[in-house]
Backbone:
C-alpha cells in the first residue's frame, strides 16, 4: 500500500499541473454537451434520444481522433523528454534528432486525422438514415437523428484537427491555451443553441438542427484558435503548415508501431461502445433517454480522471525520455493509487448529486427518470474501476509504449466478456437496468486487476527510437 499512496509532493504537483487544466477543459466540454441535452430535452423524449444516438456515431470519430492524438502523444512526450535531456547534456545532435522526429510524428497524425474526417463526412452526407438505423428503428427518432447528422457533416474537420493539436500541445506542457479556448467555445455554443434551437433574435426555431449548428459553431471557434496558434505561433515544437509535406519515411515504422495499435484499440473500443449504444437504443426510447442523462453525469464525475489519464501518459513518456526507468516504475504505482482515490471521489459525487441532475430534465417521461436513477447506482460502482484502469491503460501503460498489448486486452475484455453479458442480460434474461449496465461495463472490473499485474511485471516499458540513423 505504501507504493500506491506514498507521500511525494513533487510528483503530485507535477501531475496536477497537467491534470487540472485538462479536467477543467473536459468539464467545459461536458457542460456544452449537457446544455445540448437539456435544451433538446425540452423538445421531448424523441428529440433527446435522437441527438444522443446521432452523437454516438460522431463519438466514434471523436474516439478515433483521441486514439490518433494519444498515440502520437506517446511519441511526442518521449521525444520531448529526449530533447530536454539532450539540452541538459549539451548534445545538440540528439536534440536535433528528437525535434525532427517530433515534427514527423505530428505531420503523420494530422494527415491521418484529416483523411478520417473526410471519410466520416462523406458517410454522414450520403447515408444518414442507414447510420441512424444502426441505433434505432423508431420513426420519430430516426427523423430527428437524420436531421441532426445532416447539419453535422463538416463538423468532423474542425473537431478532429483541434482535438489532435490540443493533445500534442499538452504533451509539451502547453495546457492553458486549450482551456481558455474551451471557455470561449462554451459561450459560443450556449448562444448559438439558444438562438437556433428556440428561434430567438429573429432566427427561425430549428430544433435539433439548431443544436447541430450550435455545436458546429463551437467547433469552428476552437479549431480557428487552437490550430491557428499551433501552426503559426507555437515555438516549443515549431510545427508549421509547410511541415505537413515533410518527408516521414524514417519515422513511419516507429509511428505505426506505437501509434496505430492505439488507433486500432480506441477504434474497436469505439465500435464496441456503439454496440453498447445499439443495445440500449433497441431497449426503447425511455432507456435511451435515461442513458443520455446518466452519460453526462458520468462524464461530469470523471473529468479529473480524464485529466489524470492524459497526465499519466505525458509524465510517463517524458520520464522515460529522460532515461529514468526506476522513477517511472515508482510513478506507475502512485498513478494506480491515484486512480483508486479519484474513482472513489467520483462514485461519491454520483451518489450525492444524481437526483439533482436528473431533476433538471423536466420534459422526459417518468419511466426514463426511474431507469436513470437505477443506472446512477450502477455507474457509482463501475466508476471506481473505470477510473483506475483508465489512468493505467490510457495513461501510464500507454505512455510506456505498451500499445500492442493494450490493443489486445482492451478489446478481448470488451468483446468476449462485456458485450456478450450485456446482450444476455438485456435480451435473454431481461434483468433490471442496474444489472444490464453492470454487465455492459464488466470489462472495467477485470481490466483493473489486469492493469495492476501488468504494472508489476515491468514489461510495459518499451524502447522508442527517433527513427534516424
Residues:
Amino acid at each position: 500500500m505504501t507504493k500506491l499512496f506514498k507521500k511525494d509532493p513533487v510528483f503530485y504537483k507535477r501531475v496536477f499541473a497537467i491534470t487540472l487544466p485538462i479536467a477543467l477543459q473536459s468539464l467545459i466540454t461536458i457542460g456544452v454537451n449537457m446544455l445540448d441535452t437539456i435544451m433538446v430535452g425540452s423538445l421531448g423524449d424523441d428529440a433527446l434520444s435522437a441527438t444522443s444516438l446521432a452523437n454516438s456515431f460522431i463519438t466514434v470519430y471523436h474516439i478515433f481522433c483521441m486514439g490518433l492524438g494519444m498515440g502520437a502523444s506517446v511519441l511526442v512526450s518521449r521525444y520531448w523528454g529526449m530533447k530536454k535531456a539532450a539540452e541538459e547534456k549539451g548534445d545538440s545532435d540528439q536534440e536535433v534528432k528528437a525535434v525532427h522526429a517530433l515534427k514527423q510524428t505530428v505531420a503523420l497524425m494530422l494527415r491521418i486525422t484529416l483523411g478520417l474526417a473526410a471519410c466520416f463526412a462523406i458517410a454522414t452526407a450520403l447515408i444518414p438514415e442507414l447510420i441512424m438505423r444502426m441505433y434505432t428503428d423508431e420513426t420519430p427518432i430516426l427523423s430527428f437523428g437524420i436531421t441532426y447528422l445532416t447539419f453535422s457533416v463538416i463538423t468532423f474537420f474542425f473537431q478532429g484537427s483541434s482535438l489532435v493539436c490540443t493533445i500534442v500541445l499538452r504533451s509539451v506542457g502547453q495546457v492553458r491555451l486549450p482551456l481558455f479556448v474551451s471557455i470561449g467555445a462554451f459561450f459560443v455554443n450556449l448562444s448559438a443553441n439558444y438562438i437556433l434551437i428556440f428561434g430567438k433574435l429573429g432566427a427561425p426555431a430549428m430544433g435539433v438542427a439548431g443544436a447541430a449548428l450550435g455545436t458546429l459553431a463551437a467547433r469552428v471557434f476552437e479549431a480557428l484558435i487552437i490550430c491557428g496558434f499551433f501552426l503559426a505561433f507555437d515555438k516549443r515544437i515549431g510545427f508549421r503548415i509547410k511541415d505537413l509535406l515533410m518527408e516521414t519515411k524514417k519515422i513511419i515504422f516507429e509511428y505505426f508501431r506505437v501509434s496505430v495499435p492505439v488507433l486500432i484499440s480506441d477504434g474497436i473500443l469505439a465500435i464496441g461502445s456503439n454496440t453498447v449504444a445499439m443495445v440500449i437504443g433497441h431497449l426503447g426510447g425511455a432507456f435511451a433517454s435515461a442513458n443520455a442523462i446518466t452519460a453526462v453525469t458520468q462524464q461530469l464525475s470523471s473529468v479529473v480522471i480524464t485529466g489524470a489519464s492524459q497526465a499519466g501518459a505525458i509524465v510517463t513518456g517524458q520520464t522515460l525520455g529522460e532515461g529514468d526507468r526506476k522513477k517511472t516504475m515508482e510513478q506507475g504505482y502512485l498513478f494506480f493509487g491515484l486512480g483508486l482515490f479519484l474513482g472513489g471521489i467520483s462514485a461519491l459525487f454520483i451518489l450525492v448529486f444524481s437526483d439533482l441532475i436528473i431533476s433538471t430534465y423536466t420534459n422526459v417521461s417518468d419511466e426514463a427518470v426511474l431507469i436513470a436513477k437505477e443506472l446512477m447506482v450502477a455507474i457509482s460502482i463501475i466508476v471506481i474501476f473505470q477510473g483506475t484502469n483508465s489512468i493505467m491503460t490510457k495513461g501510464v501503460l500507454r505512455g510506456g509504449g505498451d500499445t500492442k498489448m493494450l490493443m489486445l486486452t482492451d478489446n478481448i475484455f470488451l468483446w468476449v466478456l462485456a458485450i456478450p453479458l450485456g446482450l444476455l442480460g438485456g435480451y435473454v434474461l431481461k434483468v433490471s437496468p442496474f444489472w444490464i449496465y453492470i454487465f455492459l461495463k464488466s470489462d472495467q472490473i477485470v481490466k483493473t486487476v489486469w492493469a495492476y499485474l501488468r504494472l508489476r511485471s515491468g514489461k510495459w516499458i518499451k524502447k522508442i527510437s527517433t527513427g534516424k540513423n
